[in-house]
Amino acid sequence: MFDLRANENKWQQQWEKTKLHETDLQTAKNPFYNLMMFPYPSAEGLHMGNVFAYIGSDIYGRFKRLQGHDVFEPMGFDAFGIHSENYAIKVGIHPLELIPRNIENFRERQLKKLGVMFDWKHQVDTTDPKYYRWTQWIFLQLYKNNLAYKKKSAVNWCPSCLTVLANEQVVNGFCERCKTAITKKETEQWFFKITNYAQQLLDNLNWIDWSESTKIAQRRWIGRSEGLRISFPIADLKEQIEVFTTRPDTIFGATYLVLAPEHPLLGKLVTSEFEKEVNEYVQAAQRKTNIDRESIEKEKTGVFTGSYAINPANNEKIPIWISDYVLMTYGTGAIMAVPAHDQRDLDFANKYQLPVVEVIKGKEVFDKKTAYVDDGVLINSEAFNELSNREAIYKINAWLIGENKAKEEINYRLHDWCISRQRYWGPPIPIVYCSQCGTVPVPEEDLPVLLPEVEDFRPKGEGTSPLANIIEFVNTKCPKCHGEAKRETDVMDNFLDSAWYFFRYPSAHDDSQIFDQQLIKKWLPVDMYIGGNEHAVLHLMYTRFITMVFKDLGYINFEEPFVKFRAHGTIIKDGHKMSKSKGNVVNPDDHLEKYGTDSLRMYLMFLGPYQEGGDYSDSGIKGAKRFIERVYEYFSSVDAWEEKEFADHCNQELINLVHETIKNVTIDIEALKYNTAIAKIRSLYNYIEEKQVKNKMVGEIFIKLIAVFTPHLAEELWSLLKNEYSVFNYGWPEYDEAKIIIEKIEMVVQVNGKVRGRMEVASDISQKEMEAKALEIENVQKHVANKEIKKIIVIENKLVNIVVI
Ligand code: ANZ
Ligand code: ZN
Question: How much distance in Å is there from the Cα of 465 to the middle of ligand 1?
Fold first, then answer.
């Protein structure tokens, strides 16, 4: 019996001894930077999701290595942050003790067993002062270039984690980590000006080669919106209210204004008669969460201020209300309400009996219950009547701008990145406050500002970090005047640690600089990045921002960190996401021990398309193990391999099969379709076994194809065939297109069920190609001309029927 675990240990030791996975970054000729998202070293250890991600990325890396690249596949630990800290609180062990222990466990007991080509020489750990010194250095560069600033603002506050959260860490109004509803808190916070890069972040999405789903998420998050900022004069006051609208074509239907309860002009507007009501409303709004405020189902509420504004289009006097469905954080914090054409406004107008004026006519009659939001022709709009509303947008814009009543504006949903955290487990923000000199950055040569050792690291819930209680930390000397000064006590968001780690890997041990420019030139941008789509608007947005900043500050000459990014799928169990509460968590350790990593690798990748994932089953992994054993048995049973050119000595069928398999497996792996690649490798093997193929070249080709999935098995088979170590140094097999005979089949082409032509197609033709080919037939074209194609029905190997009307 083949002992998978023993075989794996043997080859893992060999790899380590021979430094097979240590790439010489200086001398490498054909660099390929294969990056995977580094983990939080939680005490529970690796979960199946990590394993799935890393194995899939490693397969791609091994493939690139076999194709002749010098592949750099580093790994590290994202060990700062709430996640690690909350865990430390839970188990009552200080993070300074717990985290190094977890890292050791992750690396030695787990990651090293996966058979991934990690280059441990370049490991980074974000909690190492030698690392976070540079995280703090990045803060200083942003500060010096006006990209970091402090402001008092209402921030997302998690009452359970007792911390401020970035918008990105709030999911539908709930804390991303503990699922508690978020409230608002006014505090002084440090921000990074990511909004300066909003347009660039958006534009570059047009050319970077990323998973479409990730790009869609980023576009939505950036949320560009083109519109007009229109000034509405306030009656009897020398002030204006500015509103942001994307629908200036509806301005003649603006029958009232609505301000956010936090609007700065509110104090001036409220008349004494309405003061009490308004104050009560404002206070109630402060207690509400943003989910409540933005929810469409929630009934809209509001109060009248007692004041009026003038609609600049028709000079009508319209009332000014406040309502919490208008957010202070978007646009100008005020809207012109057009109840006839906006559902929220209509509900509000109906509730408070405000006037509704229809200004765009559609096909149906307006019933004052459903707002008409589609295109149409303008009515009740004076000189603009009868224009299509699309055209009216341009005309009304030009008119209002010409009259100095409006200006064009682009708004983004993206906000500046709040990086202050009132927690312990992060790099301290390198700032000192001096009563003489004000805010003073810590000089670069004084970095790192060490995170002090403190016994009680738990958050106090007072809106300050536990560091604020450590007198020796807080009290310091001003770097400028050397007088008494105080340190900033907030630490930085964990997402800053991970926003630049891939820049550090090549220079992991360089204490003189953040990174070596020569190495960066050679190895970056990253060639392939694989990770979870849950990071689409967090980590992946921040890394892009930091990269753009590095470029603008002259440290690098590219602006996108990842040429290619692919989001991997997720592994579920019995139809559900693995979770402790469902009791369906599969611990990778047990399965590694029992079945070996080659089985796990092969099985996980066979579950489904890598970018989708699949449902984990115990019987499946057993099947993978049996297959590996069978392969080994066959290879070890062959006494004498024939050392002959297989193209001359094998039958045509086998020659075709080998070339076809190489071709398809190459295409599949490049597209991360590992499941279909494995299926094809398996059929090649079945043929070899069934026909007792003993040609050594065929055996070698098979070994190389399977090597990316089951690297330990492949090394063993390679040595069984008396080849020199290591199979990974011997290149990816090549195929010859001419040797691939594609079966042709004849298909009948019908239009509305009548035969209109015939065609010969390759048996592996795709549905799209087949449809296109059918439509090329002249007689078919005649019968579909000037008709609408309703659908195309394909009956495999038989016919194509085009349905037209
Ligand atoms: C008048 C109007 C008429 C609007 C109409 C819509 C339809 P996006 O596309 O997301 O940018 N709005 C502006 N600022 C707001 C705020 N702070 N809180 C809540 N709503 C706000 O949305 C722009 C539209 O959202 C704006 O256009 C404004 O309503 C509203 F038939 O103005 B509209
Ligand atoms: Zn000073």
Answer: 38
State how far the Cα of 572 lies from the Cα of 74, in Å rounded to an integer: 27
* 555 band by pLDDT with thresholds 50, 70 and 90: very high
Distance 244 CA to ligand 1 centre (A): 7
Ligand 2 center–CA 478 separation, angstroms: 5
Question: Ligand 1: which residue has its CA nearest to atom 19?
Answer: 326
Q: Ligand 1 in contact with 262 (CB < 6 A)?
A: no
Is the four-CA dihedral 32, 722, 669, 734 of positive or negative sign?
A: positive
Closest residue by CA, ligand 1 atom 26:
245
Residue 232 in contact with ligand 1 by CB distance below 6 A: no
Question: Could you give the CA distance from residue 78 to residue 666 in angstroms, rounded to a whole number?
Answer: 33
Burial string for 165-179 (b: 16+ CB within 10 Å, else e) reads bbbbbbeebbbbbee
pLDDT at site 737: 84
The answer to whether residues 803 and 790 touch, using CB atoms and an 8 Å cutoff, is yes
Q: Are 446 and 407 in contact (CB under 8 A)?
A: no
Q: How confident is the model at residue 736 (pLDDT cuts 50, 70, 90)?
A: confident
Ligand 2 mean position to 442 CA, how many Å?
11
Nearest CA to ligand 1 atom 28: 245
Q: Which residues contact 382 (CB under 8 A, 6 or more apart)?
A: 252, 313, 314
3-state percent breakdown (helix, strand, coil) of the chain, nearest 5: 40, 20, 35
Q: CA torsion, points 705, 709, 712, 713, in degrees to nearest 10?
A: -60
Exposed / middle / buried, residue 622 (Cβ in 10 Å: 0-12, 13-18, 19+)? middle
Which residues have CB under 8 Å from 731's CB, separation 6+? Answer: 66, 67, 68, 704
- CB of 49 closer than 6 angstroms to any ligand 1 atom: no
Q: Residue 704: which of 713, 695, 693, 692 has the closest Cα?
A: 713
Per-residue pLDDT, 290: 63
Minimal-distance CA residue to ligand 1 atom 31? 341
Confidence of residue 20 (pLDDT cuts 50, 70, 90): very high
Determine whether the shortest distance from the Cβ of 333 to ligand 1 is under 6 A.
yes
Share of residues in the chain with pLDDT > 70 (%)? 97
Global pTM value:
0.86
C-alpha to C-alpha distance for 254 and 257, rounded to whole angstroms: 8
Of the ranges 81-85, 476-480, 616-620, 641-645, which is most confident? Answer: 476-480
